[in-house]
Each structure stands twice: as structure tokens, then as C-alpha cells.
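Quick one: DNA-binding transcriptional regulator YhcF (GntR family) from Streptomyces olivoverticillatus, C-alpha cells please.
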Amino acid sequence: MTALGQPADPPYLRIAAELRARIASGELRAGEKVPSTRRITQEWGVAMATATKALAVLRQEGLVRAVPGVGTVVHAPDSAPEAVMAVRARRHGKVQRGADPSLTSERVVRTAVAVADVQGSEGLSMRAIAGELGVSTMALYRHVPGKAELVELMADAVFGDIALPAQAPAHWRGRLEASARLQWALYRRHPWLARVMSFTRPLISSNALALMEWTMEPIRELRLSASEMLHITVSLAGFVRGVAVNLEDEALAEQDTGLTDDEWMEARFEELGALISSGHYPMYERILADPEVDFSLDTMFDFGLARLLDGLTELMHERRPRPVGRGRRTE
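--- reply ---
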């Protein structure tokens, strides 16, 4: 409780406030790394989850951004969010300029994509986008109604960036595999995308629909029901997205801890090995002992995609077009 009898802010907000003050005062300058989650747990004596929430608050405010391979850093002065820019302006007796007259919907969308690519879906906010553009947050609403509509435009834009192969595979299996790999590559470039996609409440995207029409082109000739075609489409896209949702977590964890997945596993290998060698986990003991075992999100994607396509083979065989001009077969 505070002196006035009001409940104190939760720890993650107090930590965020302290880091915010360091940024505003210039103690943490543009481009400098802010304390990692591990450092925060040591300095403030809190759990890793609390440290992660504190950094997430600052990302949402646009005060910091995640840089792949570096960590979380303070925004550059020319892209600082309004809160920090206002503090600096007041200290120097300056008045901030109005909105950029060259601001367009496309520019807002592409900037939002760039912000999400670095800061993740949790770090995407109208304030962060405005900070990158050097305009007020309200200026964005002249071009997009709100964040939900902006996310839909972002998804449509990146799906529109997919370059379909000049020679499209004619066989259904080759076409589905090609489509899945195009989607996987898209999620690799934009890890946030998997978080915003939904199959029960789908985003309205003409470019995503066009990709799936291209995907299903060889299958339309088969004797499949409308329901079967829909479920094949969604099953394929759902599988790719299901693996891809891990990409953002992996990227943010590396930025926050400074450790790659391999480095993290190496740091805990002794502890994990001791547990597995206890005799209670023979399958994992065999896996750990085999130097040929290679596991990553990419290998999981490759393995799962092959099994999914294998599973569709029998259905596709049953639905092949009947030969034309042949007499009825007798038993």
C-alpha cells in the first residue's frame, strides 16, 4: 500500500517506470541496450515473467525496440515516441511539428509491418508506429480506422509480397507443398503474422484468398466436395501456422536473453542430461545419445508437411476423375 492507502503499482509497472525515467533523462541513450530480462531479474529480484512484462510495456509504448542478434535497445531520437519527444522538447523549449503531409495509408501499413517484424505482435502499437513515422498518434487515424483494421491491412500487404513460381507444379501434391513452403517463408520473414491469423474469424485479405485459389487449382479437377476442399485448404494453412506461432517466441526469447536456442540448450544440457539418464525416460535417452538427431522448427515443418501430404494421398486417389470412354468394369 502507498502512503495514501492506495495499492502500489505491480512490480512490472514499477520496473517499466524506472526504465522509462532512465530513457527520458538520457541515462539510457538512443541505440543503447536496456537491461535484459535476466539482468532485470537480478537487479530487481523478480521472476522472469515479471521482467518480460516490464519490457513488453516499453515496447508497446514505442520506447524501445528489439534488434535481432543484439537485444532490446532504446529508440533512435528521430523515431522516439511522443512521450519521450515531449519531455525532450519541453527541456529545450521546442515545439513539436505537426503531422507529415506525405503520410499515406500504404506508408503507415509498411511502417507497421517493419515495427512488428522487429518488436513482435505485442510490441505493435499505434504509438510505436507514430514514433517511427515522426507524427502524432492521432495522425494515423486519418489513414486507418484502428489497430484491428491496420493488422488486416498488414496481413494483406505481406501476402501480396509472395512471388508465385513462374512454373507452377501441375500435380496436387507438388502444388500443396509449394504453397506450404511459400507460407512458411512468409512467416519466417514476418513472425508476428502467425499470431494474428485466424481460421474461425479469418482476416479479410484478397491476397491470401488468391494464394489459396492458386494452391487448390489442380485439386478442383478432382471429385471433391466443397466441404473436403475447404478442409484441405484450412488444414494445410493451419498446419503451417501451427508451427509458425513458435517463430515469434523464439525470436523474442533470443533478443531478451541474448542466447540462441542452441546456446540455451547447451547451457542446460547437463541438467537435462541428468534428468533423462535417470532411467525413467528411455525414449529421450535414446534420442539424446544419437548424434544424428537434428531438431528445429524447420525440421518439424518438413516432417509434418510430408506426413500431412501422405495422409491426403489416399483421399486424392479415391477422388481421381474417372476415365472417359471406357466401358463399365465387370467384377
